[in-house]
Design brief:
Keywords (chain B): DNA-binding
Largest interface: A-B, 17 and 23 residues
Largest sheet of chain A: 3 strands, antiparallel
Radius of gyration of chain A: 21 Å
Helix content of chain A: 55-70%
Strand order of the largest sheet of chain B: 1-2
Helix content of chain B: 55-70%
Structural class of chain B: mainly alpha
Largest sheet of chain B: 2 strands, antiparallel
CATH class of chain B: Mainly Alpha
Structural class of chain A: mainly alpha
Strand order of the largest sheet of chain A: 2-1-3
Number of domains of chain B: 1
Number of strands of chain B: 2
Number of strands of chain A: 3
Oligomer: heterodimer
Protein name (chain B): Transcriptional regulator
CATH topology of chain B: 434 Repressor (Amino-terminal Domain)
Organism (chain B): Pseudarthrobacter polychromogenes
Distance between the termini of chain A: 15 Å
Number of helices of chain A: 5
Radius of gyration of chain B: 10 Å
CATH architecture of chain B: Orthogonal Bundle
Pfam families (chain B): HTH_3 (PF01381)
Order of helices and strands of chain B: EHHHHHE
């Protein structure tokens, strides 16, 4: 019955998964199970309303999660764009290059900021014990399978590069590993979900 | 594992969503348990038993 725990999900998934684990751990410690173990309180203290995008805690009060997530995402995208310009991305037109990087990064960074800031107990329809839900099992199985796929892929790839004159750039190789890891985890999760 | 969860739930007049909310899990989890495709954790099994006022053995039986 115990799910496989040896997993190495891709960077993005790992980051979000860590946040999910962190928030659910916080929600577990915030539980107030009654004598019959059937009732729990909403841990979004002072804000019993659940919304589609949830709320974020700022000190003692809560605000819609998108309110701090959007400016933080824009700031992160701007920092990445500045770093890209300083690193010599598009040296002929550094401003245009930075603008393109910022435009491409702003949505993912806003999403990342939201994932880190949102109090999951304020999300509409969120289970209060996601670690005991079947979706958690699907994710664990998919992550464990993806880890083994990555081991096989990187092992075979290393052998091919070692035994043949083929050469690839490090960034291309890492991109390939990331794509394989994400595809593997995504496909495996979907298969698990369809099986029920 | 086989289980009598669908019968127990119907006896109490509970929907899958209501049971899921009471347990703090997703509705899909209740569906998967009822179909025997997902074995719940021990704490979840204890909460189920407590919820219906019976023992775990009354709900789950080996096999299937």
């Amino acid at each position: 019955m115990a799910p496989a725990r040896s997993s190495s999900p891709p960077q993005w998934t790992s980051l979000l998964y860590s946040q999910v684990r962190f928030t659910l751990k916080a929600s577990i410690t915030d539980k107030n199970w009654g004598p019959d173990m059937t009732e729990n309180k909403n841990s979004a203290a002072g804000n019993p309303v659940r919304t589609a995008w949830g709320r974020a805690r700022l000190g003692t009060r809560t605000v819609p999660a998108m309110m701090p997530a959007i400016p933080l995402g824009i700031l992160l995208a701007a920092l990445i764009a500045a770093a890209a310009a300083l690193a010599g991305f598009a040296p002929q037109q550094p401003l245009l290059g930075a603008a393109i990087v910022a435009a491409l990064m702003v949505l993912p960074m806003c999403a990342l900021a939201w994932a880190f800031l949102v109090d999951r107990d304020s999300l509409k329809g969120a289970a209060s014990r996601p670690e005991e839900s079947v979706e958690s099992r699907w994710y664990d199985n998919a992550a464990a399978g993806a880890f083994h796929d990555l081991l096989i892929f990187s092992g075979l790839g290393t052998a091919v590069l070692f035994l043949t004159p083929l050469e690839i750039e490090g960034s291309v190789g890492l991109l390939a590993v990331s794509v394989v890891g994400m595809l593997s985890a995504g496909v495996r999760y979907t298969v698990n979900r369809r099986r029920g | 594992m086989e289980n009598t969860l669908p019968e127990l739930r119907r006896e109490h007049g509970w929907s899958q969503q209501k049971l899921a909310d009471a347990l703090g899990v997703s509705r899909q989890t209740v569906i998967s348990i009822e179909k025997g495709r997902f074995d719940p954790s021990l704490p979840l099994a204890f909460r189920l038993a407590s919820l219906f006022g019976c023992t775990i053995e009354d709900i789950f039986t080996p096999g299937g």
